[in-house]
């Protein structure tokens, strides 16, 4: 014993949890600095570059905002699944299928006017994304197949399917062999709202608000919450548990699909393999950091998008490898999750026992 | 539980009389926030004595014993072991001081053997020989009269045997004070007697035993000293020589006069609400049952004889394997999985209030909405305002304490949670009520209230009462079915006194009352 002990708090921390978050953030940045210092990089300068690249200028803010959009949509979907205690980590694959759905609509009906084509793209992206999520959901319900494994595997299949298409039938003949489709017609491109920011932001706001109302105000939302709290009680109360599992998975698939659609249409204007950059995995981090709350998801999406953009700046200026963003993201998640321990537990000094000399002596030696 | 009188078989009750107390609690107070769970409690635990701690639910028995066994630390006051002050920071400290507790929910590794469970964490050498372990456990079991096969896997044991393993774990750790929290709740009458004999034997060898209970008969039969807790304070202490009768004890416990039996005026019976013909499978054997509106049918029996499976079939959580189940005139397949929303309904009050009937981290309104949500659905939306108002009404009507609707279900005691569940299920105006051990773990006052509510509900519903408490069946039921190993031993009206007298035997599987 070190003269300290760990005790459970009677009440979880309220405001102190903010402090815990910032301490965890500082800790993860500290470890990141240590890693940079080990490579001989000027770490204080690196921190400045990180900030500068992500949030300091209009241009960097725009870049952060653009990355926030797909991360936010994927995170919402993941969070809804996690609320039901359905561990869908397949947002990445569902995102890939969304891009495929949207591109199929564009390549099949290239001459449609925008008012018809864009909604069709949204429908196709949502449908394919939802389908990609519904298959593991069905496998879980019917055959008890663990959805963590199946959704993860479906990510690889989905991404390979995307590559199969852009390397094959969908390849632009004029691309000099590069794996990419033709540039989308203007009618298939989500337009800009201001600057580089496109209408995808509005989609995020609408989806966020609708989801919030859905979860808080509707009967199905209530059933989702109760089902996530206690699956046995949900069955007892005759909630359609299987339907709810399918529903959350399909919702997540549709949202991730939309993220893929928006990224393809608004940012790249065509489908190419590098549309898949791990937003679906970042979404898992965001959902956990935000503890599955919608407003917090918005904040953490911005933060982690900023981290991605900022590390790009580091890459350019300090020749830090690209994987560094992943390392920092992982550090932050682990630090915050570990920090949540202090929400429920506290470390106390062991009081001296006056009546017994041995105990006091023993403590004297240890401290 | 048993109708037979229990004879106290202590042999040397007074052998340790002259010794000082093993453990002394002095002015123990414990508060959880504003709630005062224990206040100024002073208690001696003496060697060779069985001390009963009697009190209603929420009286503070469990809190006090959790302090003694190191799970909580007291807000103020001191604990003396052998006259020396001690402070327990964890159960480990308490076990080191020789104090151990057997909780209601056993903490055993199901896939390991009895001997492995007993020695878990106590292996003295790196390599342990199974034969030596088993011999050691056998010897210990022999000494204290706890017969058990040390090589058996825990998952194959009955509840009574598992309890013995828990006790052996404490004895192996040289515990001198054994705290047993409601140990008889899960036992058959025979197992209960065996436990009592083991308790006397342990006490005869100088162990102190603290016996937490609210079953007066058992407390009177088994203990040497009785301490009564009420609202966190000790209101009375009796020694074996001056213990008053049951009624006085009960009154001291609740602080007012209680009626231990209630008058069940018969109600006019109506049509058949539940009809079961030849239900078999899942451990059940050709069960036949007919329940009418206005009746209470009690299914008596020791837990684990197929009652759970029967309830699950009736409540739609399990598909009948063979036989016919008609609920409110509809066949099982038509009633489930989507029971009609309007008019005909079945309410299930499960035994597992915390795990099945409620979500412990949700507030009372959400828990109220759990089964009543369809009544508050407006299109796809939920009318939370109306639900909140109704919850407040129900809380008032059923006297749920503390009735803060923002509090979580976890913050309610067992009895109050049960009242909330009953209020919620009655709100649906059910035609069938399936109540599974509805008063288990409740104190006398709450039990009485639940009984009254069930009897009132007969006016509009048929009630299927599954109970392992004989008294409960006798108090409430019109008809009693005794269940043993998946079969009904007999179904009879409660006026059939010959059969009523034989219920205890039937629960143990003895077929013909004539054979007695």
Mass-distribution shape of chain A: globular
Q: What is the average per-residue confidence, as pLDDT of chain A, rounded to a whole number? A: 88
Order of helices and strands of chain A: EHHHHHHEEHHHHHHHHEH
Number of helices of chain B: 18
Which stretches of chain B of 5+ consecutive residues score pLDDT under 50? Answer: none
Question: What would your notes on this structure say?
Answer:
The complex is a heterodimer of chains A (367) and B (516). Chain A is built from 15 helices and four strands. Chain A is mainly α. In chain A, β2 and β3 (197-198) form a beta hairpin. Chain A is globular and about 80 Å long. Residues 354-367 of chain A have low confidence and may be disordered. Chain B has three domains: 23-106 and 173-254, P-loop containing nucleotide triphosphate hydrolases (Rossmann fold), CATH 3.40.50.300; 272-345 and 429-515, Rossmann fold (3-Layer(aba) Sandwich); 364-427, no CATH class. Chain B is 32% helix and 25% strand. Chain B has helices spanning 61-68, 91-96, 114-119, 130-144, 159-172, 189-204, 216-222, 246-254, 307-314, 332-335, 353-357, 364-372, 384-397, 414-427, 444-457, 470-476, 497-501, 503-507, and strands at 23-32, 35-45, 50-55, 76-81, 84-86, 99-102, 177-181, 208-213, 225-230, 233-239, 272-281, 284-292, 296-300, 322-327, 330-331, 346-349, 377-378, 381-382, 432-436, 462-467, 479-484, 487-493. In chain B, the strands form five sheets. In chain B, strands 6-7-8-3-9-10 form a six-stranded mixed β-sheet, with helices on both faces. Chain A binds chain B through residues 5, 10-11, 217-223, 225-226, 229-230, 232-233, 235-238, 350-351, 353, 355-356, and chain B through 32-33, 84-85, 87, 89-90, 316-317, 337-339, 348, 350, 355-362, 366, 369-371, 373-374, 377, 380-382, 384.
């Amino acid at each position: 014993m070190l003269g300290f002990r760990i005790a459970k708090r009677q009440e979880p921390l309220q405001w102190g949890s903010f402090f815990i978050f910032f301490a965890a953030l500082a800790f993860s940045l500290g470890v990141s600095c240590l890693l940079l210092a080990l490579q001989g990089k000027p770490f204080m300068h690196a921190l400045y570059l990180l900030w500068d690249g992500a949030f300091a200028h209009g241009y960097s803010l725009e870049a952060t905002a653009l990355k926030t959009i797909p991360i936010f949509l994927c995170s919402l979907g993941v969070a809804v699944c996690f609320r039901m205690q359905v561990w869908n980590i397949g947002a990445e694959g569902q995102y890939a299928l969304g891009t495929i759905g949207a591109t199929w609509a564009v390549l099949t009906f290239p001459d449609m006017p925008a008012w018809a084509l864009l909604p069709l793209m949204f429908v196709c992206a949502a449908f394919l994304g939802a389908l990609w999520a519904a298959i593991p959901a069905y496998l879980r319900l019917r055959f008890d197949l663990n959805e963590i494994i199946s959704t993860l595997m479906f990510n690889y299949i989905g991404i390979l399917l995307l590559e199969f298409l852009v390397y094959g039938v969908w390849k632009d003949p004029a691309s000099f062999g590069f794996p990419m489709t033709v540039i989308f017609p203007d009618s298939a491109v989500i337009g800009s709202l201001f600057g580089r920011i496109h209408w995808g932001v509005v989609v995020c706001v609408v989806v966020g608000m609708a989801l919030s109302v859905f979860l808080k105000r509707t009967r199905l939302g209530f059933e989702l919450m109760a089902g996530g709290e206690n699956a046995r009680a949900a069955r007892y109360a005759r909630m359609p548990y299987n339907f709810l599992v399918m529903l959350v998975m399909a919702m997540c698939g549709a949202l991730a699909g939309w993220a893929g659609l928006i990224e393809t249409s608004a940012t790249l204007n065509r489908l190419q393999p590098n549309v898949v950059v791990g937003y679906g995995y970042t979404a898992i981090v965001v959902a956990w950091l935000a503890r599955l709350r919608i407003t917090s998801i918005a904040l953490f999406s911005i933060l982690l998008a900023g981290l991605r953009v900022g590390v790009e700046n580091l890459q350019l200026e300090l020749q830090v490898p690209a994987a560094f963003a992943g390392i920092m993201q992982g550090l932050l998640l682990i630090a915050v999750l570990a920090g949540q321990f202090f929400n429920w537990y506290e470390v106390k000094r062991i009081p001296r026992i006056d009546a017994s000399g041995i105990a006091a002596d023993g403590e004297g030696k240890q401290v | 539980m048993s109708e037979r009188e229990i004879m106290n078989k202590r042999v040397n009750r007074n052998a340790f009389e002259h010794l000082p107390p093993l453990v002394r609690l002095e002015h123990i107070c414990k508060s959880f926030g504003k709630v005062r769970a224990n206040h100024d409690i002073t208690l001696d635990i003496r060697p060779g004595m069985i001390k009963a701690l009697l009190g209603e639910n929420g009286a503070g028995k469990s809190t006090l014993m959790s302090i003694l066994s190191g799970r909580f630390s007291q807000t103020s006051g001191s604990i003396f072991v052998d006259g020396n002050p001690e402070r327990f920071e964890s159960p480990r400290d308490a076990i080191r001081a020789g104090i151990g507790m057997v909780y209601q929910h056993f903490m055993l590794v199901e896939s390991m053997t009895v001997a492995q469970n007993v020695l878990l964490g106590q292996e003295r050498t790196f390599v342990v020989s199974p034969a030596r372990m088993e011999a050691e456990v056998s010897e210990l079991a022999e000494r204290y009269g706890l017969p058990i096969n040390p090589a058996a896997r825990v998952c194959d044991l009955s509840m009574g045997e598992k309890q013995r393993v828990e006790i052996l774990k404490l004895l192996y750790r040289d515990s001198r004070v054994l705290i047993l929290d409601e140990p008889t709740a899960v036992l058959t009458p025979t197992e209960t007697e065996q436990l009592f004999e083991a308790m006397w034997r342990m006490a005869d060898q100088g162990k102190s035993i603290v016996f937490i209970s609210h079953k007066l008969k058992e407390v009177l039969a088994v203990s040497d000293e009785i301490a009564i807790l009420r609202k966190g304070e000790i209101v009375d202490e009796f020694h074996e020589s001056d213990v008053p009768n049951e009624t006085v004890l009960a009154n001291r416990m609740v602080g007012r006069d209680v009626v231990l039996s209630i008058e069940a005026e018969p109600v006019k019976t109506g049509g058949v609400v539940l009809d079961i013909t030849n239900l078999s499978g899942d451990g059940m054997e050709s069960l036949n049952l007919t329940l009418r509106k206005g009746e209470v049918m009690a299914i008596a029996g020791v837990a684990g004889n197929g009652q759970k499976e029967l309830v699950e079939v009736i409540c739609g959580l399990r598909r009948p394997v063979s036989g016919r189940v008609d609920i409110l005139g509809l066949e099982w397949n038509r009633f489930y999985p989507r029971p009609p929303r309007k008019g005909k309904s079945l309410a299930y009050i499960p035994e597992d209030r915390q795990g099945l009937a409620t979500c412990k981290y949700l507030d009372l309104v959400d828990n109220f909405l759990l089964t009543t949500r369809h009544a508050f659905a407006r299109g796809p939306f939920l009318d939370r305002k109306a639900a909140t108002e109704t919850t407040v009404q129900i809380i008032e009507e059923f006297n749920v304490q503390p009735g803060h609707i923002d509090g979580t279900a976890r913050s309610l005691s067992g009895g109050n949670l049960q009242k909330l569940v009953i209020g919620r299920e009655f709100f649906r105006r059910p035609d069938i009520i399936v109540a599974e051990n509805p008063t288990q773990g409740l104190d006398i006052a709450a039990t009485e209230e639940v009984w009254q509510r069930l009897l009132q509900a007969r006016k509009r519903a048929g009630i299927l009462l599954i109970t392992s408490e004989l008294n409960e069946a006798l108090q409430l039921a019109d008809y009693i079915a005794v269940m043993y190993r998946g079969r009904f031993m007999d179904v009879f009206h409660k006026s059939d006194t010959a059969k009523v007298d034989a219920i205890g035997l039937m629960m143990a599987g003895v077929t013909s009352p004539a054979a007695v």
